[in-house]
Design brief:
CATH architecture of the largest domain: Orthogonal Bundle
Enzyme class: transferase
Low-confidence stretches: 1-10
Radius of gyration: 19 Å
Number of helices: 16
Function: Converts heme B (protoheme IX) to heme O by substitution of the vinyl group on carbon 2 of heme B porphyrin ring with a hydroxyethyl farnesyl side group.
Pathway: Porphyrin-containing compound metabolism; heme O biosynthesis; heme O from protoheme: step 1/1
CATH superfamily of the largest domain: UbiA prenyltransferase
Helix content: over 70%
Distance between the termini: 51 Å
Strand content: under 5%
CATH topology of the largest domain: Tetracycline Repressor, domain 2
Number of strands: 0
Order of helices and strands: HHHHHHHHHHHHHHHH
Structural class: mainly alpha
Mean pLDDT: 92
Largest sheet: none
Number of domains: 2
Shape: flat
GO molecular function: protoheme IX farnesyltransferase activity
Subcellular location: Cell membrane
Length: 302
């Protein structure tokens, strides 16, 4: 935690500062995968309730992000990538950020339960708790496997979207969970490889810091090789059709080629890590297109 003395110069925040606390870039991916889970689910939901469900997921994800920023203000202050975030930059006081985050957490879960369903609300509450407490408070500073276990938090949105429609959890949302869970390590470790100096400076035990680039690159390839067949499981099990199958197979081929390039790279400075930067950027596109193909498959072929 950052000391109150270091943050005593906080100025009055603008709405942009509070919005930044929600980690809007991360929230975009969360909202998209949640919406895809909702649209791909069998059955129908009232459009207004569907909108409420996605809004609650977005607010809940933002609340988790704000709790993360509140607790990690000391880390953010020493990392170049995060030093200008609202709390370390002094634009939002820590207690204000905490109050804001807790209010959004309680509000999003309560509205989800009352308007949509308590299973979806329970999943949303657990995902907020998992990211804010299990990952941020416990795992992040304790183990190089932090992003592997903590990645479960980001894998919940499509499951919540699915549960909002169906009121239950079947094999398909579990597979969607597994896809994001397995996608997270190669995505995040690609970033960690060229940001290793920042994590080392902040004392965060990311895999490149504790085990070195070579081990991290092999792990990126390993998870990528597991991710691709799991992403094709919906087709093999008859839960998705040829649109999803073709798109996912092509995306998976590119993902593995990029992961192989990462595994073969021997650069130890950020300027020589083009394969890692390419995989990190493509991994975002990969997940967006994969889930978009799932929805297209459901709307066109069902």
């Amino acid at each position: 935690m950052m000391t109150t003395q270091a943050l005593s110069t906080a100025h009055y925040a603008e709405w942009r500062d509070y919005f930044a606390l929600l980690k809007p870039r991360v929230m975009t991916l969360v909202v998209f995968t949640a919406a895809c889970g909702l649209l791909a689910a069998p059955g129908h939901i009232n459009p207004f309730l569907g909108f409420v469900a996605i809004l609650c997921i977005a607010v809940g994800a933002g609340a988790a992000g704000a709790l993360n920023m509140w607790y990690e203000a000391d880390i953010d202050a020493v990392m170049k990538r995060t030093a200008n975030r609202p709390i370390p930059a002094g634009r939002v006081a820590p207690n204000e950020a905490l109050t804001f985050a807790l209010a959004l957490s309680a509000g999003s879960v309560s509205i989800m339960g009352l308007a949509v369903g308590w299973l979806a609300a329970a999943l949303l509450a657990f995902s907020i708790f998992f990211y804010a407490v299990v990952y941020t408070v416990w795992l992040k500073r304790a183990t190089p496997q932090n992003i592997v276990i903590g990645g479960a938090a980001g894998a919940f949105p499509p499951v919540i979207g699915w549960a909002a429609v169906t009121g239950d959890i079947t094999l398909m949302p579990v597979i969607l969970f597994a896809i994001i869970f397995l996608w997270t390590p190669p995505h995040f470790w690609a970033l960690a490889l060229f940001m290793e100096a920042d994590y080392s400076k902040a004392g965060v035990p990311m895999l490149p810091v504790t085990h070195g680039p070579a081990v991290t690159r092999r792990q990126v390839l390993l998870y990528s090789l597991i991710l691709v067949p799991v992403s094709l499981a919906p087709v093999a099990l008859g839960h998705a059709g040829w649109i999803y199958g073709v798109v996912t197979a092509l995306l998976g081929a590119v993902f593995i080629v990029d992961a192989l390039a990462v595994a073969r790279n021997t650069a130890t400075v950020a300027s020589g890590m083009a394969p890692e930067k390419r995989l990190f950027k493509f991994s975002l596109l990969y997940l967006f297109l994969l889930f978009a193909a799932l929805v297209a498959d459901r709307l066109i072929l069902s």
